[in-house]
Every structure is written in structure tokens, then in C-alpha cells.
Known about the structure:
By secondary structure, this protein is of the alpha/beta class. The chain folds into two domains: 63-300, Aspartate Aminotransferase, domain 2; 303-340 and 351-363 and 376-389, no CATH class. Helix content is 36%, strand content 19%. It has helices at 48-51, 60-72, 83-96, 109-124, 141-145, 150-153, 172-178, 202-215, 236-240, 266-270, 285-300, 303-317, 341-350, 374-386, and strands at 27-31, 34-37, 42-45, 102-106, 128-132, 163-167, 183-188, 191-192, 198-199, 218-222, 246-249, 260-264, 323-329, 332-337, 353-354, 356-357, 363-366. The strands form four sheets. Strands 4-12-11-10-7-5-6 form a seven-stranded mixed beta sheet, sandwiched between helices. Strands 1-2-3-15 form a four-stranded mixed beta sheet. α9 (236-240) links the parallel β10 and β11 (246-249). α2 runs antiparallel to α11, α3 (83-96) runs parallel beside α11 and α12 packs parallel to α14. The longest helix has 16 residues, at 109-124. The chain is globular. The two termini are 21 Å apart. The model has no long low-confidence stretch (mean pLDDT 97). The structure holds pyridoxal-5'-phosphate (PLP). Residues 50, 108-110, 113, 136-138, 189, 193-194, 222, 224-225, 250 line the site of pyridoxal-5'-phosphate (PLP). Residues 50, 108-110, 113, 136-138, 189, 193-194, 222, 224-225, 250 line the site of pyridoxal-5'-phosphate.
Amino acid sequence: MPVTATATSAVPASYLAPVFAQYPLEVVSASGVWLRNARGERVLDLYGGHAVAGLGYDHPGFTAALARQAHACNFQTNAVAMAVRERAAARLVRFSQLPFASVFLVNSGAEANENALKIALRATGRDHVAAIEGGFHGRTAAAGAVTSGAQAKWYGFPRTPFDVSFIPRGDAAAVRAQVTGRTAAVIVEPVQGLAGAVELGAPFLAALRARCDEVGALLIFDEVQCGVGRTGHPFAANLYGVMPDLLTTAKALGNGFPCAALLMTQPVTAGLKLESLGTTFGGGPMACAAIEAVIEAIESEGLLEQVRRVGAAIRAQCVVGPVTAVQGAGLLLGLRTRRPARQIQAELLEGGILAGTASDPQVLRLLPAYVLGEEHVELLRDALADLTP
Ligand code: PLP
């Protein structure tokens, strides 16, 4: 299924800010795990729009739920009670199978992290946050401050809003040295997404939990990319058996309808005051209908089990051609490549398969929809096997 590259010259003058490198692909429609370009050529999407399209495209239940809510009432703020908002929050907590007591609904991963950090700094009265080397948390002032390497590359603010230090992955001694009585919070992606689907592992996450308890800091899991079923479990917290004080999630939560959530335990919730947090669009009824529909589909279609099964098939079958190993969890996978991953990405796309890259140049990142099947894994395996090792 060869795909014709979209020539840059074919794109008319654009008024969009020139900040995104473009894939040589223009999508006009999509269904299931398949994208279609203007020529009608199909592309197998293993990237899911940065891990967002968890249900894939044109999912009947999701599309119908959004249409129903648009007809019923497309917007009211958080100052006006709506049953769909209550249902979405309750459903998310139930889905998590974790002892969370409240949910603050916002619009993006960065905004969820921004609020989580603010809550932790205010609750503890401290001025230091520890993050993990390789972690990505978003591009706003606080989320960018705890993003590894942001200061050198794109941060842009003259100073960070609090002191930050970065703990090397897996370094227990550094956890003790850097997480102290000054530390308000430790923020961590249990599986680092942009870094290339790097699992930090249960022992390291448990060490962070223990040290936070010792010094009275809060533990924030950033599950913006690895949450909502992406690992084959509701959250990575379930997979690794470590309970955070705050958990942020976004991306697959809305399957493309912009939304994010911050889940909090009872002690964190007890510290919240009226008007201490706010948002206009967060918790809007369309976003809430999207959240409900996503969780309904994951549960009723057995998608957690499918993510685990199809993820295992990729691990078992795709160490071929230029791929030397597979890392990550569920359908958040990094294929370690002998040649630069960008080359492999370009070659796969010429053959009709879209994959992502990572900040590690030797890792090809896969973030497909949870509805991906074994038949699609075979297409990937055969395409990889045909490439020069
Ligand atoms: N945290 C993680 C782990 C992410 O992967 C991302 C986005 O890629 C973010 C936060 C930021 O989310 P958003 O782009 O929705 O602000």
C-alpha cells in the first residue's frame, strides 16, 4: 500500500504559525485504525495523533455520544450543575479502581499538571519540585519547568516559578538527596512517553512514594500519555501498584475532544477551598460526554485486554529488520532501531504505515488506537522485515 508523499508546494500559503514540522501526509478522513489521504490512499495509523485517538476514528458510540450531547446542551460552565459532568467524574474515579476522592476537569495535559503543581506547592508551603530526567510534562510555565531539557531547548520564560531538580532514572540515592523537607512534590511519568516509552519500573516508583511519605511531599503521577488504558490497565498506577496523591491524565481521555483531568485523594481534596482553582472550558458537557463514551467503550469492548494482547504481539513479532528490541507497556511502545528512527519512520510511511519518533533518536514510538488488531501487527512486522536492517 504505497503512499504518495504530500509535496510542500501542494499546500497553499498557510496562516498557521510555523512551529510544527510536518509529516508528508495530509489526512482527509479516517475510520478505525486507518487514515485516508486526498488520493484515497490508506495509511495504517500507529501513532494515534500523539496517543490521543485511543478508540480510533469514527467510533460509533463515541460519535453518537458527542452528537447527543451537542443536541442536548453544548455548554454550561462549572457554576451550573450538569448531570453529565457528575457522571463523567464518578465514572473516571470508578474506572481508575484507585481510592481517589475528587476530580478537577481541565482542557489539556499541561493545564492539569500546572494545577497539580500549584496544589502541591500551596498545600505544603514549600518551594521545590523534583522531576525525573527524560520526563515531559507540557509547555506552560510550571509544566515546562519540570520538563527535562526544556530550559535548554524551548522553555522561554526568564525563570521557573519554583526551584526544580531532576533525578536520574532509577537512581535511589539521588531520590534521597533531592527529595527533602523543602520538596513540595515529585512529578513523574510512570512510563516516559516522549522519551521513547521508557518504563521507570515498580521499585523506583515505590522508592519515590516512600521518600515522599518520609519528607511530607506529594507524589504526582503524570499519566497524560500512559493513562486511560494505554498500558492495558486503567492507569500505570494500577500496573505498578503505586498510589500517587495526585494523578493527571488527558490525551486518550477525550479521544480527540480536548479534555484533561486531575484526580486527587481525600487528604488533597480536603485542602481545596472554594475558588482556589478555576477554568472556563474544563468540565464542559461535550468533554464530559467524550470522557463517558471513552470509558464506556474501553469497558464494554474489552479494550484493556486487547491492549495487553496486541501489545504483546508487537513485542513478540516486531523485533525484525532494523528493530533490535521493544520497550514500554501495553500500546505505548518504543521500537529500538539500529538506524536512526526518523529514517525508519519515513520508509514505513512510504509503505503506508504511520509511526512516531521519540526524543531518543534510536526509538520509533507506537501509540496506536486500542482497537488495533493482530492483523495490523502482521502488516507492521512484514513492513519492518522488508526494510534494510
Ligand atoms: N504530560 C505528558 C506525559 C505528555 O506526553 C504531554 C503531551 O505530550 C503533556 C503532559 C502535555 O499535554 P498537552 O499537550 O495536552 O498540554
